[in-house]
Amino acid sequence: MDTPRSFKELQLDEDMLIGRSEKEIEELLGRIPDHITPEENIYILKRYFFGLFERKLHLFYYKGTVTDYYIGIL
């Protein structure tokens, strides 16, 4: 089992997310997603300005495998 990754580690090695299952991602990040839909999971990585802005990791799934992701402040 991998140790939970920090945001900086994810930025350095983002392509490690593609092709992984939902369970593998949960083990990699060390927690469950903050928002779950059938085709997308969202992790809140950091909050800014008392929660007005959040850095989020969006993971997009197809048949249980990550096909794409987005990291940004929304």
Can you put this structure into words, describing what you see?
With 74 residues, the protein is α+β, with helices and mostly antiparallel strands. It has a single domain, classed as Beta-lactamase Inhibitory Protein, Chain:B, domain 1, CATH 3.30.1450. The protein is built from two helices and four strands. A four-stranded antiparallel β-sheet has the order 1-2-3-4, with no helix packed on it. β2 (40-48) and β3 form a beta hairpin.
Topology (elements, then pairings):
Layout (H helix, E strand, L loop, with lengths): L6 H6 L9 H8 L5 E2 L3 E9 L4 E10 L2 E9 L1
Antiparallel strand pairs: 1-2, 2-3, 3-4
The largest beta-sheet arranges its strands as: 1-2-3-4
Number of domains: 1
User: What structural category characterises the helix and strand content?
Assistant: alpha+beta
Q: How much is the average pLDDT?
A: 82
Q: Please state the second-level CATH architecture.
A: 2-Layer Sandwich
Q: Which series of helices and strands comes N to C?
A: HHEEEE
The biggest beta sheet is recorded as:
4 strands, antiparallel
In one word, what is the shape? Answer: globular
Share of helix among residues? 10-25%
